[in-house]
Description:
Elements: H1 6-26, H2 32-47, H3 61-74, H4 82-86, H5 96-108, H6 114-138, H7 147-156, H8 164-182, E1 186-190, H9 196-201, H10 203-210, E2 218-222, E3 225-227, E4 240-242, E5 247-255, H11 257-266, E6 272-279, H12 281-291, E7 297-302, H13 303-313, H14 319-337, H15 343-353
Helix pairs in contact: 1-5, 2-3, 2-5, 2-6, 7-8, 8-14
Amino acid sequence: MAKNTKQDITLNLQQAKARLDKLISKGRVHLYKPIQIAEILYRNRVHKDIDLSQIDTYRRHSTRWRNAVCPRLVGKVPVLNSRYEDQMFDHGMMSPDILVLLGKENKDGAFPGIVESYIYNKVKERLSPLTNMLHELENTKASQFSLSQFLGYFENDKRLKRSIDKIYEIIVYALFDTLTKYLKATVTLSVDTSKRKILIDFEKFANLVLGLDKEHLSITQPARLFRFGVTNAADTGLDMWANFGPAIQVKHITMDETDVVEIHQNIMADKIVIVCKMVEKSKIESIIKQLGLGEKIRGFITEKDLIEWYKKCTSTEYENSLGKDVIGAIIKEFKLEFPLTTVSEIDKFFKERGYSQIPENTIWSGA
């Protein structure tokens, strides 16, 4: 029987590290899944109350451990569905056999906590460009803002590329909502006076759902757009809705006929506006006609349109009105989507855990 040599163990550890690196590279900017792995390893090293070979001892509990440190490190608690979370432990990913290898290195190796430290240093690296970008946004005048350059930061930086879809939502929402406000658009809802009896019989419904009552058969309010909120997992659902009709789907892709069918199947709305990078016009028109979607899909707004509209907003004519407010809206949504913690708080966390004392070593010295 062949002996299990030190070289064999190192090779296995390198394979385990490769799995971890793959998880990190595929993660969105906050790296929630790698943080969960780090907390599993921390639990195994410090509390010693789990068995890494037995997934049921940490699969569910580890979400709570992750959520306990996330507000401190990345500014918010993730909201992930359990199926999305469990995929992390599938065969070929961070399965128990891989965690056993990482756990042994992390707990019994030359530098206890080294794998945890490695993961959290990757978190710091991922958050660093966001901090710099926010600082730049807050110190940029409207006349200096370039949408194409801003999007380029995310498209060209491998640390941020996975979050380009969220940035796309932010710049679309900031522009659309600001323009709607400046146009002073209003929406009026009214009921037929001949239906007053029904309104009275269903007064609570009319009041809570429609905002009407027997003395007020119509209501006028500002037209508004709303984001469906920040999300962590990729989705195919609705991104924005308006209180004046259309649903708005934002996709940072070149739209083809397959994408249109997917949106049609996933969004139940009378009118849909699709915002995308580019449109394969001939194919799109063909599928819309084939499916009879001409009345439902109001139209497409491309990145070219967005760049042109942002240029107008930041021109000399509008820079101190539309331009100033749209940049302010981007900053507000940016902070909601990426609520960054302070560098000092992260450094304090490192000091408490002892990560600052762990030197760069062997395979954990680089990416």
